[in-house]
User: What shape does this take?
Amino acid sequence: MAEVARVLFGREDVRRRVAELGRTITGDYVGREPVFVTVLKGGAMFLADLMRAVHLPVEPHFMAISRYGDAEESLGRVQILLDVDIDLTGRDVILVEDIVDTGLTSRYLLSVLRSRGAATVELCTLLDKTARRIVPVQPRYAGFECPDAFVVGYGLDFQERYRNLADILEVFDQGALRADPDLLQSLVAPAA
Ligand code: IMP
Ligand code: MG
Assistant: This one.
């Protein structure tokens, strides 16, 4: 297994970092009631943990998108399949993402949210793969700098698998995983 993937950020690292982000956001938004907008499905785990680490009234809302081909081919154009169902006028919005890679998806979603009349729109991502950026997106909050590698777990998938993995794994051998998408299934252990 070791040659295919290794733990990059273990569940304890994730727990600690999410708690820190929660404290920071709590401090930054004192007296306000931020709207957290998360993109399904990858951001769902992070949102669930992050909002419980924020000691303010927080409203969770969801969007779902489909990409036209991969992000780079489509230049980040996405189709919105599910949209937030509240008026964002005057609200403090935080876009909560699992990972920012090229930045195309986040740039598009930030522009959509800004066009809705929000008072403020910020980006919070668990993983920031800055090496892969093709448009300048700078998250206000980022959990971890992510190496230029393919990662799975804690919301992030390979062919819809491994979102329920408690740890975040770096996959070294994507060929092996393509050949057997369930190769890492034994690592999906119940959280202790
Ligand atoms: P971007 O538009 O290139 O920033 O794409 C961000 C999206 O690509 C994320 O929301 C993920 O769904 C997906 N993605 C990017 N990198 C990875 C990865 O290493 N593992 C799994 N999904 C990824
Ligand atoms: Mg995916």
User: Anything to note?
Assistant: The chain has a mean pLDDT of 93.
